[in-house]
C-alpha cells in the first residue's frame, strides 16, 4: 500500500493479504460500482475519492479495477467502459484500421453504446450502490435513455434466462429470484461545479437540491423508479442526498469551455477606472477580509465555511449510503415514496466473487458460441441484443417508413396516365421532397433508393411514354406499349407555305419527309396561290423497280470520309474510272456552263459553284467564253473586264449570238448511260460531298415564281394579304443596284449569224454596252410561333425604311447570313427564328438571275446545296421565292438547331454562304418553262 491508504488491483487478480482482510468482514461487504465518464488518460473516475490506479495501469474496455480501504466495509469496483475518453479513443483507432474509408460513425456509436449497456447491466446485478460519474456541470439526459434501454433489456431478455441459468450454480441461491443483490441505489457525482456560481454552502446546497429534483422528475416520468423499489430498476435514498458536486476543487476541467471563457474575458475587458482600483487591490488579498478588522460575525461565518469544505467530500458523501446498507435500512423506501422493506443481500467476499464470475460470464461473454448454448432465450439474447437496443435505428427506420409511404402516395397521386422520363424524374424529385419532410437518419438513403425503384415500376407498368425524339428534340407522347401509326409530341409550330401566303399549324415532325415535303404539300392544297405558281422541279430519285433502298453508310463513317479525302486529293484517278460517255457529258457541261470573273477576288476564291459532287461542271477556274472565239480576243476581253471591275465596279457579261436550232437528238445520243442510281437513294439532303449518282426521295427545297415584279411595291412592302405573319417594319425587300457592262461576240461571229438574230435581241443590243440592273432581295426568318421578319444585316433585324440604304443589300449578299437568329417577339422563352425563304424580284432586262445557295452547318461542316445539276435561272421581271429546308440532315445524322445562341456566336448554328446569285444572258431560243434545264444555262457571271 505504501504511502496510500488503500489497496488497488485488477479483477480478478486479488492480492492474498487483501483477500484475507476482506474475508474478515464476513457478510458485511458493501460493493460500490463506479461507472460513468472520465477524461483522464488512465480512465480513472475515482479522483474525487483521492484514489488512482498504479502508474503502469493500461485501461481496456470491460476491465475492472478494485479499490479497498482497510478498516472499511466498502469494496469499490471501478468499471472501465466505452464512455471513458481513453477507451473510446482506442476503439476509434481500431475501427479506423479495420474499416478504413468505409468507417460508419452511426454504426460505431451503436456498438459503443451496446458495450456500455452490458457493463451497466452487470453493475446493477453485482453492486449495492452505483455511483455515476459525470464530468459535465449538468445532468446528461442521454443517461435517461440508457436507463430505459436497461429496463427493457432486463424485463424482456435477462429475466427470461437468468433464473434458469443461475439456478444450476451456487450464485442462484445467493441472488434469489431477482437475480441480483438488491435494487441498487444510484448516486450522481459531478466532478465540476458551475464556475459562475459561488462555492458557498448555500449555493452548493441549492445547486445540489435543484439537480436532485430534476433527476427525480426525469427518472419518475420515464418509470425508471416506481413506488415498489423491489420491482424498480433503480432506487433513490429516502431523505438523503444523492447528488454531489465537487465544488472545492476542479477535476478535468473542460478545456474548450476554459478557452471560451478566456476569450470572452479578453474580448469584454474594459479599461481600468478609478472606482475599480479598490476591487483590483482586494483581488490580490490572500484571503477574504484581509487588512480588515476581525469581528465576531466574520469569525463565525469563516468557521462554518471552513468546516463545510472539510466535511463536503465525495468519500463522506459515499459513507453515509454505505452505513445505510450496513444498518439494514437501505431498501426501506424510495425517494419521496412510502417506506417499504426490500431485498438486500450482504455477502462475503468469497460469495460475492462466485456471483460475479457467473454474472460476468453470462452478461459479458468473451466469445459468443451460439451453437453450443442450449437455452434458446439466452441464444436469442446474444444474437439480437445489440439490434433490440438500437432504438435510434428503430426510430429512424420508423420515420423512413412513414416518409416512404407519403412519398410513394405523392408520386402516384401526381402521376398522369402517360408520361415520359423527364416527368418521371420531376415527380420522383417531388416525392423525395415529400419523403424528406418525415424521413430522417442513416436509413434515408436506402429508403430513397427503394422509393425510386417502386416509382420506376409504377411508371413502367403501362404508363411509360414512347419518347421517340422528334427532329426538334421533342419526345413522342404516345404510350410506349400501345401501337400507334405515327409519333406525336403534342407540340404545334406555325409555319408558312412555299409561297408564304398562307400560314398553318404543323405538328412537330418526326421524319425528314414530314418536315421538308409533306407539310408543304398539305399547305399547297389549302393555299390558293401555291397551286398556280410556276415551280422549279428539283431532281429526285426515280426507282427502276420496287427493290430500292436507302444508301448505306458506315456507322462512324470512316470509310466515307476517307473516300471524300481521296476524291479531293486524287481527282485524276476518279476521272479515269468514269466511263467514256460520262466524260463526254462532263466535258459538255464544262464547256457550256463556265463562269466569268466574280465581283471581287475574295468571293471568287471562297465560294465556288460546285453542287452535289458536280463541281467539275461549274468550276470557276474553267474558261468562261465560247470556244469559237480566238485566244487573242479572250485575253483582251479578260484583261479589259478585270480593269473595268476594279475601276468602275461593273460586271462584264459576254454575249453570244443565238445558236442554230438544234435537231432532234438521235437514238445514239440519247443512249448515253446516266450517272443517277435507280436502286439507292440519298437518305439525307444533297451536299457538296454527297456520293455521285445519289438523289433524295423528295425535294427539301422549293423555288416558285409567285407573280410578276409589279406585285411588290417598295413604298408599302409586303402586304398582309400577300405575305402574312410579318412583324411591323420588317416586311421590306432590300434594293440592289448591279452595274453591268456587255461584251459582244467577235465581229466575224456576229456577222455570220446576223440574219438569224431575233428582233428582241436586236432591240437589246441597241441600248448600248452599259446598264444598271435593279434587283430586290430579302432574307426572311421565321420562328416556331409564325413570326416572320427580314434582316438588313447579319446581326440586325429590318426596322422599316430607315434601315434601307443604297448599298445595304450589296453588303448583305456578299456576307454570310446566320441560319438562326433570335426572334424579336416578346416572350418569356427566347425563340430562335430560322432562315426559311429568300425573296428575289428580278429586273426588267433580258437577263436571268441565277441562284445557287449553299448552307454550311454541323460539326462535319456539311455544305448543303439545291441538288440540281445546273443552278436554276429566274425569269426576268418576276417575283421568285426560294424556300429553304425546315430540317437539315447529313449522311450520318440529323443536325439539330442550337438551343441558344450567344450574340458573339451567331454563326455557330450554321450560315448561308455569300455569293449565291449569278447573272446570265437570256437565251431567246428557250421558253421560260425550260429556264432551269441544263441546256438553257449558257454563260453567266457571279454577282
UniProtKB/TrEMBL annotation:
Residues 567-601, 623-678 are annotated as: Disordered. Residues 634-650, 668-678 have a biased composition (Low complexity). Belongs to the SMG8 family. One of its GO terms (biological process) is nuclear-transcribed mRNA catabolic process, nonsense-mediated decay. Residues 589-601 have a biased composition (Polar residues). Keywords: Nonsense-mediated mRNA decay. Residues 569-585, 623-633 have a biased composition (Acidic residues). This is Nonsense-mediated mRNA decay factor SMG8. Involved in nonsense-mediated decay (NMD) of mRNAs containing premature stop codons. Probable component of kinase complex containing nonC and recruited to stalled ribosomes.
Amino acid at each position: 500500500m505504501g504511502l496510500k491508504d488503500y489497496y488497488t488491483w485488477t479483477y480478478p487478480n486479488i492480492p492474498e493479504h487483501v483477500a484475507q482482510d476482506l474475508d474478515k468482514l464476513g457478510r458485511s461487504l458493501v460493493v460500490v460500482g463506479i461507472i460513468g465518464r472520465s477524461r483522464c488518460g488512465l480512465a480513472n473516475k475515482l479522483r474525487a475519492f483521492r484514489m488512482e490506479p498504479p502508474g503502469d495501469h493500461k485501461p481496456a474496455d470491460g476491465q475492472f479495477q478494485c479499490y479497498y480501504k482497510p478498516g472499511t466495509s466498502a469494496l469499490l469496483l471501478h468499471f472501465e467502459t466505452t464512455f471513458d475518453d481513453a477507451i473510446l479513443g482506442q476503439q476509434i483507432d481500431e475501427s479506423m484500421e479495420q474499416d478504413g474509408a468505409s468507417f460508419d460513425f452511426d454504426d460505431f456509436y451503436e456498438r459503443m453504446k451496446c458495450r456500455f449497456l452490458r457493463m451497466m447491466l452487470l453493475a446493477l446485478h453485482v453492486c449495492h450502490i452505483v455511483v455515476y460519474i459525470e464530468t459535465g456541470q449538468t445532468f446528461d439526459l442521454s443517461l435517461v435513455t440508457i436507463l430505459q434501454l436497461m429496463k427493457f433489456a432486463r424485463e424482456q431478455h435477462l429475466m427470461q434466462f437468468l433464473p434458469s441459468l443461475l439456478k444450476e450454480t451456487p450464485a442462484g441461491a445467493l441472488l434469489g429470484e431477482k437475480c441480483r443483490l438488491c435494487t441498487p441505489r444510484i448516486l450522481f457525482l459531478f466532478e465540476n461545479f458551475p464556475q459562475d456560481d459561488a462555492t458557498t454552502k448555500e449555493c452548493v446546497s441549492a445547486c445540489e437540491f435543484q439537480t436532485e429534483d430534476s433527476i427525480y422528475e426525469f427518472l419518475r416520468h420515464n418509470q425508471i423508479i416506481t413506488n415498489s423499489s423491489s420491482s424498480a430498476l433503480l432506487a433513490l435514498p429516502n431523505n438523503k442526498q444523492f447528488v454531489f458536486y465537487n465544488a472545492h476543487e476542479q477535476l478535468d476541467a473542460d478545456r474548450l469551455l476554459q478557452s471560451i471563457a478566456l476569450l470572452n474575458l479578453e474580448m469584454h475587458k474594459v479599461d481600468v477606472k478609478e472606482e475599480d482600483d479598490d476591487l483590483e487591490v482586494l483581488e490580490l488579498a490572500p484571503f477574504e477580509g484581509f487588512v480588515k478588522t476581525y469581528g465576531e460575525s466574520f469569525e463565525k461565518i469563516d468557521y462554518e465555511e471552513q468546516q463545510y469544505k472539510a466535511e463536503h467530500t465525495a468519500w463522506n458523501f459515499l459513507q453515509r449510503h454505505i452505513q445505510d446498507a450496513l444498518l439494514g435500512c437501505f431498501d426501506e423506501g424510495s425517494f419521496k415514496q412510502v417506506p417499504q422493506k426490500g431485498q438486500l443481500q450482504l455477502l462475503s467476499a468469497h460469495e460475492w466473487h462466485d456471483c460475479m464470475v457467473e454474472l460476468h460470464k453470462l452478461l459479458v461473454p468473451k466469445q459468443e458460441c451460439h451453437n453450443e448454448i442450449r437455452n434458446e432465450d439466452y441464444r436469442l439474447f446474444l444474437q439480437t441484443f445489440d439490434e433490440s437496443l438500437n432504438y435510434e435505428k428503430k426510430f429512424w427506420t420508423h420515420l423512413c417508413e412513414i416518409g416512404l409511404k407519403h412519398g410513394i402516395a405523392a408520386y402516384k397521386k401526381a402521376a398522369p396516365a402517360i408520361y415520359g422520363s423527364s416527368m418521371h424524374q420531376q415527380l420522383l424529385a417531388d416525392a423525395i421532397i415529400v419523403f424528406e419532410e418525415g424521413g430522417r437518419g442513416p436509413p434515408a438513403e436506402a429508403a430513397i433508393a427503394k422509393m425510386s425503384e417502386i416509382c420506376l415500376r409504377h411508371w413502367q407498368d403501362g404508363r411509360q411514354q414512347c419518347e421517340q425524339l422528334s427532329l426538334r428534340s421533342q419526345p413522342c407522347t404516345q404510350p410506349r406499349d400501345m401501337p400507334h401509326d405515327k409519333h406525336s409530341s403534342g407540340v404545334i409550330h406555325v409555319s408558312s407555305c412555299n409561297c408564304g401566303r398562307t400560314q398553318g399549324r404543323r405538328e412537330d415532325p418526326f421524319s425528314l419527309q414530314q418536315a421538308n415535303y409533306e407539310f408543304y404539300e398539305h399547305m399547297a392544297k389549302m393555299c390558293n396561290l401555291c397551286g398556280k405558281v410556276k415551280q422549279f422541279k428539283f431532281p429526285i430519285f426515280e426507282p427502276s423497280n420496287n427493290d430500292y433502298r436507302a444508301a448505306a453508310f458506315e456507322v462512324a463513317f470512316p470509310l466515307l470520309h476517307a473516300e471524300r479525302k481521296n476524291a479531293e486529293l486524287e481527282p485524276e484517278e476518279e476521272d479515269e474510272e468514269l466511263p467514256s460517255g460520262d466524260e463526254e457529258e462532263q466535258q459538255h457541261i464544262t464547256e457550256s456552263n463556265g463562269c466569268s470573273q466574280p465581283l471581287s477576288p475574295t468571293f471568287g476564291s471562297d465560294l465556288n459553284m460546285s453542287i452535289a459532287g458536280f463541281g467539275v461542271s461549274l468550276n470557276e477556274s474553267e474558261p468562261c467564253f465560247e470556244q469559237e472565239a480566238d485566244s487573242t480576243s479572250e485575253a483582251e476581253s479578260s484583261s479589259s473586264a478585270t480593269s473595268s471591275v476594279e475601276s468602275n465596279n461593273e460586271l462584264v457579261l459576254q454575249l453570244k449570238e443565238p445558236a442554230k436550232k438544234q435537231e432532234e437528238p438521235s437514238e445514239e445520243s440519247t443512249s448515253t448511260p446516266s450517272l443517277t442510281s435507280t436502286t439507292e437513294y440519298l437518305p439525307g439532303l444533297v451536299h457538296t460531298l454527297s456520293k455521285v449518282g445519289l438523289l433524295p426521295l423528295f425535294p427539301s427545297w422549293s423555288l416558285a415564281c409567285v407573280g410578276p415584279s409589279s406585285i411588290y411595291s417598295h413604298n408599302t412592302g409586303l402586304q398582309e394579304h400577300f405575305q402574312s405573319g410579318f412583324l411591323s417594319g420588317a416586311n421590306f425587300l432590300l434594293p440592289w443596284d448591279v452595274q453591268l457592262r456587255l461584251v459582244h461576240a467577235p465581229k466575224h461571229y456576229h456577222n455570220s449569224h446576223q440574219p438569224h438574230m431575233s428582233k428582241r435581241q436586236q432591240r437589246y443590243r441597241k441600248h448600248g454596252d452599259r446598264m444598271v440592273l435593279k434587283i430586290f432581295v430579302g432574307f426572311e426568318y421565321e420562328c416556331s410561333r409564325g413570326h416572320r421578319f427580314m434582316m438588313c444585316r447579319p446581326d440586325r433585324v429590318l426596322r422599316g425604311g430607315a434601315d434601307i440604304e443604297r448599298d445595304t443589300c450589296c453588303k448583305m449578299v456578299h456576307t454570310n447570313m446566320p441560319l438562326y437568329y433570335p426572334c424579336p417577339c416578346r416572350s418569356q422563352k427566347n425563340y430562335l427564328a430560322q432562315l426559311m425563304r429568300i425573296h428575289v424580284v428580278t429586273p426588267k432586262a433580258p437577263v436571268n438571275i441565277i441562284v445557287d445557295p449553299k448552307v454550311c452547318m454541323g460539326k462535319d461542316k456539311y455544305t448543303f446545296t439545291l441538288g440540281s445539276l445546273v443552278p436554276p435561272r429566274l425569269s426576268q421581271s418576276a417575283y421568285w421565292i426560294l424556300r429553304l429546308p425546315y430540317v437539315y440532315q447529313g449522311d450520318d445524322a440529323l443536325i439539330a438547331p442550337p438551343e441558344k445562341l450567344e450574340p458573339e456566336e451567331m454563326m455557330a448554328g450554321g450560315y448561308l454562304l455569300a455569293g449565291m446569285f449569278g447573272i446570265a444572258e437570256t437565251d431567246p431560243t428557250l421558253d421560260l418553262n425550260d429556264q432551269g434545264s441544263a441546256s438553257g444555262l449558257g454563260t453567266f457571271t457571279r454577282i
